[in-house]
């Protein structure tokens, strides 16, 4: 069990990566905001499967939080996170300060227009600008060959891949599958905010997604009907405030015309008390064949 080398400074981070790259090592990064759980550790394993060294960043990024969101109370527990990473053979934990990541303040940003106003973007204006701004900085600081993200944040992964292609970053975007608790709740650092009653009600999201998956398997292909089945399953439950439930083509984040076909993203967001949770299922549909799938 080797604790990863902790680097807080962008210059030192760049020097470490340059040296590793000059020795021909392939670098994989897993960007995170910390409070690591099994979902993050599974992404570390995905990175390790195609890279010589794995680096994890832990940075609670202020620019992706809106006013009144949980930036201040977001869990910060570097010591525990380093211990979790020690068991996974991670070489470096990059945990910079806000001043390191935003040396000229938070105004200079990288924006990707594609997809930023859909789904989560509708209720969190500016959120994806914050994500692309910090991820581009992480790429410049950490100089990875590969970056691994969780499919749970499906829209985020699509927008980051788009940014990587648009800005010609020489980085491969790779996805890791959603990791769930035994009862189906998607793992999230925010699950710790839930009290026992909210934790129980949080299953409404995964159950609504499963309900739509069952309808797909039963042959339903009408995007509007699938969406209303999901909306119905997410609505009308005390203590669950639905934000959206959508059945969309991941290529456009808009519904398929007429009937769903090919890749399908079924995604939802809801608030349980003050805690906002998201979840999704992805399917590949070919005729009668319906299979769970990765987004890319
Ligand atoms: O998914 C997250 O934890 C964050 O949005 C990310 C990608 C680390 C950027 O801050």
Number of domains: 2
Q: Helix- and strand-based class?
A: alpha/beta
Strand order of the largest sheet: 1-4-3-2-5-6
Uncertain segments are none
The CATH superfamily of the largest domain is known as HUPs
**Number of helical regions:** 10
Shape, per Cα inertia axes: globular
Ligands present: pantoate
State which percent range the strand residues make up.
15-25%
Task: Write the topology of this structure.
Elements (H helix, E strand, L loop, with lengths): L4 E3 L2 H13 L4 E6 L5 H13 L2 E6 L19 H9 L5 E3 L3 H4 L18 H4 L3 H16 L3 E5 L3 H13 L5 E5 L19 H6 L1 H15 L5 H12 L5 E9 L13 E11 L2 E12 L2 E4 L4
Parallel strand pairs: 1-4, 2-3, 2-5, 3-4, 5-6
Antiparallel strand pairs: 7-8, 8-9, 9-10
Helix pairs in contact: 6-7, 9-10
Bound molecules: pantoate.
In short:
Helix content is 35%, strand content 22%. It is α/β, with parallel strands linked by helices.
Characteristics of this structure?
alpha/beta; Rossmann fold; Pantoate--beta-alanine Ligase, Chain: A,domain 2; six-stranded parallel sheet; 10 helices; binds pantoate
Structure description:
The chain is built from ten helices and ten strands. With 296 residues, the chain is α/β, with parallel strands linked by helices. Helix 6 crosses helix 7. The protein is globular, with a radius of gyration of 19 Å. The model has no long low-confidence stretch (mean pLDDT 97). The structure holds pantoate (PAF).
């Amino acid at each position: 069990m080797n604790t990863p080398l902790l680097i807080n400074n962008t210059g030192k981070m760049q020097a470490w990566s340059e040296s590793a790259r000059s020795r021909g090592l392939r670098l994989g990064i897993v960007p995170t905001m910390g409070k690591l759980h099994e979902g993050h550790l599974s992404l570390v394993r995905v990175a390790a499967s195609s890279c010589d060294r794995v680096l994890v960043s832990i940075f609670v990024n202020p620019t992706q939080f809106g006013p009144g969101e949980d930036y201040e109370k977001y869990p910060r527990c570097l010591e525990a996170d380093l211990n979790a990473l020690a068991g996974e053979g991670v070489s470096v934990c990059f945990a910079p300060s806000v001043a390191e990541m935003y040396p000229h303040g938070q105004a200079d940003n990288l924006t990707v227009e594609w997809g930023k106003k859909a789904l989560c973007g509708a209720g969190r204006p500016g959120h994806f600008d914050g994500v692309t701004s910090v991820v581009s900085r992480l790429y410049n600081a950490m100089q990875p060959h590969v970056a691994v993200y969780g499919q749970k944040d499906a829209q985020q992964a699509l927008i980051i891949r788009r940014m990587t292609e648009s800005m010609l970053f020489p980085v491969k975007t790779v996805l890791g599958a959603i990791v769930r608790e035994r009862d189906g709740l998607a793992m999230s650092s925010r699950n710790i905010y839930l009290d026992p009653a909210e934790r129980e009600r949080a299953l409404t999201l995964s159950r609504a997604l499963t309900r739509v998956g069952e309808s797909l398997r039963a042959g339903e292909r009408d995007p509007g009907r699938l969406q209303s089945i999901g909306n119905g399953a997410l609505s009308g439950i005390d203590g669950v405030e639905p934000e959206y439930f959508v059945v969309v083509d991941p290529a456009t984040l808009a519904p398929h015309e007429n009937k769903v076909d090919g890749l399908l993203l079924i995604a939802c967001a809801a608030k349980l008390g003050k805690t906002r949770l998201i979840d999704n299922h992805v399917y590949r549909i070919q005729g009668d064949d319906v299979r769970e799938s990765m987004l890319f």
